[in-house]
Specification:
Shape: elongated
Oligomer: single chain
Radius of gyration: 60 Å
Strand order of the largest sheet: 26-27-29-30-31-32-33-34
Largest sheet: 8 strands, mixed, barrel
Distance between the termini: 124 Å
Number of strands: 35
Helix content: 40-55%
Number of helices: 30
Amino acid sequence: MPKRISALLVEDNLSDARLFEELISSSDVLVPSLHHTTGMNDTLTVLKANKFDVILLDLSLPDGQGLGLVKLVQKFAPQVPIIVLTGNANSSLAVQAIQYGVQDYWLKSEALSPIRLAKHGYIDVANSLIKRLEYAIERAEMSKKLALSEERYELAVQGSNDGIWDWDLRTNRIYYSPRWRAQLGLSYEDMGDRPEDWLTRIHPQDRGYVEQLIQKHLTYGSNQLQCEYRILHANGSYRWVLTRGMALWNDDGIAYRMAGSQTDTTSRKCLEKALHQEKELAQITIHSIGDAVITTDDQGQIKDFNPVAERLTGWTAQEAKKRSITDICTIVDGETGETLINPVLQALSEGKPVSLSNHPTLISKTGDKIAIGDSAAPIRSEDGAIVGSVLVFHDVTEERGRAQQLAWQASHDPLTKLFNRTKFHQVVDDAIALARTQNIHHVLCYMDLDHFKIVNDTCGHAAGDELLQQVTNLWRNKVRKSDALARLGGDEFGLLIYNCHLSRAIELANQFCNLVQSYRFVYGDKVFSIGVSIGIIPISPESGNTEQVMQLADATCYSAKNKGRNRVQVYHPDEEYITQQSSDSHWFSRITQALDHERFHLYHQTIADANFNSDNVEISEILIRLPNPQNNTVTLPMAFIPSAERYGLMPKIDRWVIQNSLRYLSKLSSVPNKIYSINLSGLTISDDTFIDFLKNQFQSFPIEPQKVCFEITETVAIANLQKAATFIQEMKSLGCAFALDDFGSGMSSFSYLKHLPVDYLKIDGSLVKDAAIDKVSQTILQSINQIGHSMGLKTIAEYVENKAILEKVRELGIDYVQGFAIDHPQRLVT
């Protein structure tokens, strides 16, 4: 099928143009679309508006001559092939035209010769011209493709940042591209084109290797030359380069050319070296640390295995590689033996670090059980994908053993190996909770050995310890494994019997009593008979908290002791002694905490002159109160002082009151004409160190002792008259005043007043409260007042609650009054 082309004929000779049109129109191989112009200006206008496959250009036009016309046409149609038409037979002009980039050069005298037309005919001449047009177009297309290919090659070379070399093996010269030289900092003057100039720059340790590869490639025709080596840079350092190349061979099998590229790989080699060093360091670290380290792929197949992992698992690294982690590491619960999920599989599944609890234990290849502490974590690639995992674990058998030992020591008595008090309290807590949630009844036995102190005092603590161990062994075989037997301290024991009727617990407690009573403790040449007192309290859904239950059990036990020892006492809520004992125990705890945390408050109440004589000294009694922040109330001394006396806490309370009272007085800018009265207990009077304590307090707080008066009750004074008299005398030697409190409550002889050098008599309130209406009370008050005055003492009436009592005691001549009719206690802010 004839090919269609679009051609532009630029010819000012109209006859030549018509002849050319006739010739190409008569062709049977090409269907041209011919456009004709006669001048350069018209030609440029046409080129702006149209595209052509070929241009036939006459070099002699009315408005332009010569090869300059070629440049103009190329400017407006740079990619279109040009065939020059000229009548000039000058060969040098033809050469120049070709150099200007035209595709062909036709002499019109030859191409359009009448002689040729006559000889060959129109068709043959036309076809010949058409062929030349086709060839011109094809050559132009090939030139375009070659230029495009060269452009792509140049871009590829520049984009790859590679240098190019081309070795002509026939002349033994090498061409190096500018980029090749720039990689080594070399100019054309620094390095010639001889192969030796290149080879001598290769590192001496690498040159033989490079030459060997080149020779092998040229000799055996291997697919490609590729070698990496060090080469000398212009700055004196060696750079790593990767050289690739390929030789060309002639028909005789002789290489005549070899070309290729050079890539600077220094950065990559440095990175590889750093990565290698890091990997080597990591390997050394992994193989030298004390933990077992195992790495796997993303399927849990083992990749690496350090020596510690070999030792703990019993598998060698060679045996373990490519096996599943579950084959190598079987992990079970150390307490139940239940198989645990492997932490590696869990970390891979969940995509986060995992650490097993439940006391993980490793079962080694040989069946050994090793307590381990473990952790596993996924390994991720740069894009966050999981590519593997690492499992780290170490032998914690010894640590876990120590922890178990510490836990045992924290909950057991080291002497008897029974539960200690702390653990027993936890057990009782759980039992109370169980009783409330499941309506199960338990029984608590509180046991105290009788006559244990005799053994200690007679034979020493070693004998006492031996006795406790032997008694424990007597009891241990009588209780169920589910029950809890504990040593609570000293010779006190606790037994919690789970899910037990009270009758059965009483039976068991009596067996304990009989065992101990019939037992004889032999130590050296001495034989001792002991007993045990047991208090029993049921635990039911209605029971209080652990502290309350233990207090009641303790009180019940002491009730058993008070009833004759070596007996069983069951708690009854209506038994007064047990209730009192429990209350005392409660107050002991509250008072101790109040002393430790400074929770007591001081109050003061005025003791006024009965006749309001301003010349007499004013007295103010300091009182103690215990606040209860839970209900915002204040507890009076009569509620907690009896318990404090029973537990021997009064000396501490007295010292706290004195210290804080003197601190308060020391902060006053000026102490008025007033005496501050402070109560003392009987135990404080018996304390030989109290006087020294008081002297130190007066030194710490610069208060005149004359401003302080101390009070003791008549009962305390009479109980140990000589001790009280000595104590009062020492206090007065310091300058302090003294008052005898609650006078008349004991109805004792007045004669002992001769031996007590007191300054004030505080008449008991029970005698004062009925003074306004009771003649007997009035007579007693009058007698006490007269005797006190005859001995030079000032008298004070307590419980003056109203105006009638105030008038009566004033009428009787009493010196001072105290009570709500005068003043209510006020907080003393310290």
